[in-house]
């Protein structure tokens, strides 16, 4: 089916603007800075802003979609958001001279449907509350977990590529990309059981949880085997979990661009609901399992919101870790001392500082400087990743100001 000419014109106009930005010399300069950081030889701390409350950003109409075709609207949204970030809070983002087109990888996942209730505070915001039904209580329930089945719908991929070529030829390179997965097994379990139920089950029925984790880990490894065998992983990433993924250490020897393997790419892992468990339990019920998955990948970014400042001895046992998340709830001095120069200290400044009734720039600066001092003291490569931004009280300028302060602190 031919695309609407008006839709094509809208997308190509935006793509031309992105292509012009992507051609700036500063893009390669930023890639080089990310490579240095990821090699643990940073020039300076790096800064990113991601997971934005987009429903609060459109104060000037620049994010309003004009296309009618679903494919065109998808690309239009991606391009408009890239241009918005570049204009208002670019920090250390890199604008690449290509457009990614997802291959039609069919993945059945683990065969368990999520049963939940949701609670909404702001109908315009995609962030909602969740109450999950516990679906894992008996031995028979473990049989629900199936090894994902992977297949490639070649015809659909070709259709997607044909659309992309019509929209972007002469402006941006077309890159078909396969699947990117994570190893957040406990995020998955939390949606199958509910966090409270899962934590009580760890304490009351540890053998049951071991059987569940063993079955889920085996299923994940089976999925990796299929993606590897079919060459359906994504290319080496520009971004991995909101941070720059540029590195000279990937892809691995023997890489074939048309058939990326797990060892050519990053994976991110986390166990966010383990914030309150002991280091020993974290090792027993998380690290011992996800280490089998991490060993298959080129590099690992570990952690998210869970505080890991007291668990670096356990994190160090995970193969191929290069970046470690230091959430808003860590003791930064302790975390920096435990990380040293061995990993990137991936600081997650609190998004609450841009969500308060009244914005306080001095608090932002003090928070960022405290991180920098701790990392300089202990020789930690440092990045600031502001994410999980649920609200800025409909004042987008707060992110612009946060970005300005962060780049000053980083020396960028």
Description:
This protein is of the alpha/beta class. It has a single domain (5-410), classed as TIM Barrel (Alpha-Beta Barrel). 41% of the residues lie in helices and 13% in strands. The protein has helices at 5-22, 25-38, 70-88, 154-168, 185-193, 195-204, 206-230, 279-294, 312-315, 332-339, 361-378, 397-410, and strands at 46-49, 98-102, 105-107, 116-119, 129-132, 150-152, 173-177, 239-240, 243-244, 266-269, 299-302, 321-326, 344-347, 382-386. The strands form five sheets. The chain has a six-stranded parallel sheet with strand order 1-14-13-12-11-10, sandwiched between helices. Strands 2-7 form a two-stranded parallel sheet. A two-stranded antiparallel sheet has the order 3-6. Strand 11 (299-302), helix 9 and strand 12 form a beta-alpha-beta unit.
SSE topology:
Elements: H1 5-22, H2 25-38, E1 46-49, H3 70-88, E2 98-102, E3 105-107, E4 116-119, E5 129-132, E6 150-152, H4 154-168, E7 173-177, H5 185-193, H6 195-204, H7 206-230, E8 239-240, E9 243-244, E10 266-269, H8 279-294, E11 299-302, H9 312-315, E12 321-326, H10 332-339, E13 344-347, H11 361-378, E14 382-386, H12 397-410
Parallel strand pairs: 1-14, 2-7, 10-11, 11-12, 12-13, 13-14
Antiparallel strand pairs: 3-6, 4-5, 8-9
Short summary:
This protein has 412 residues and is an alpha/beta fold. The protein has helices at 5-22, 25-38, 70-88, 154-168, 185-193, 195-204, 206-230, 279-294, 312-315, 332-339, 361-378, 397-410; strands at 46-49, 98-102, 105-107, 116-119, 129-132, 150-152, 173-177, 239-240, 243-244, 266-269, 299-302, 321-326, 344-347, 382-386.
């Amino acid at each position: 089916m031919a695309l609407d000419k008006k839709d094509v014109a809208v997308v190509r106009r935006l793509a031309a603007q992105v292509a012009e930005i992507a051609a700036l010399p500063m893009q390669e300069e930023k890639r080089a800075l990310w490579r240095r950081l990821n090699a643990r030889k940073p020039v300076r701390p790096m800064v990113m802003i991601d997971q934005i409350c987009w429903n609060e950003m459109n104060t000037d109409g620049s994010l309003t979609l004009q296309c009618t075709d679903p494919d065109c609207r998808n690309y239009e949204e991606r391009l408009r958001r890239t241009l918005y970030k570049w204009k208002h809070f670019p920090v250390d983002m890199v604008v690449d001279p290509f457009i990614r087109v997802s291959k039609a990888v069919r993945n059945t996942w683990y065969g368990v449907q999520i049963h939940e209730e949701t609670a909404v505070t702001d109908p315009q915001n995609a962030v909602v509350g969740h109450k999950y039904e516990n679906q894992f209580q008996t031995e028979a329930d473990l049989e629900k977990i199936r090894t994902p089945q992977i297949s490639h719908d070649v015809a659909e991929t070709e259709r997607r590529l044909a659309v992309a070529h019509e929209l972007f030829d002469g402006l941006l390179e077309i890159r078909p990309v396969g699947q990117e997965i994570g190893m957040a097994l406990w995020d998955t379990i939390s949606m199958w059981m509910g966090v409270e139920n899962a934590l009580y089950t760890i304490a009351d029925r540890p053998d049951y949880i071991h059987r569940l984790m063993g079955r889920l880990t085996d299923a994940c490894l089976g999925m990796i085997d299929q993606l590897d065998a079919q060459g359906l992983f994504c290319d080496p990433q520009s971004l991995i979990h909101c941070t720059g993924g540029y590195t000279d250490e990937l892809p691995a020897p023997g890489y074939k661009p048309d058939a990326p393997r797990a060892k050519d790419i990053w994976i991110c892992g986390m166990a966010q609901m383990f914030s309150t468990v002991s280091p020993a339990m974290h090792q027993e019920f998380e690290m011992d399992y996800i280490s089998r998955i991490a060993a298959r990948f080129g590099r690992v970014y570990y952690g998210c919101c869970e505080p890991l400042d007291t668990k670096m001895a356990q994190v160090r046992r995970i193969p191929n870790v290069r970046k470690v998340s230091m959430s808003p709830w860590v003791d930064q001095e302790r975390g920096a001392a435990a990380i040293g120069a061995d990993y990137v200290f991936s600081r997650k400044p609190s998004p609450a500082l841009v969500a308060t009734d009244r914005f306080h720039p001095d608090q932002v600066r003090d928070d960022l400087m405290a991180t920098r001092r701790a990392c300089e003291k202990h020789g930690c490569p440092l990045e600031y990743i502001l994410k999980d931004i649920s609200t800025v009280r409909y004042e987008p300028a707060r992110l612009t100001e946060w970005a300005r302060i962060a780049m000053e602190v980083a020396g960028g």
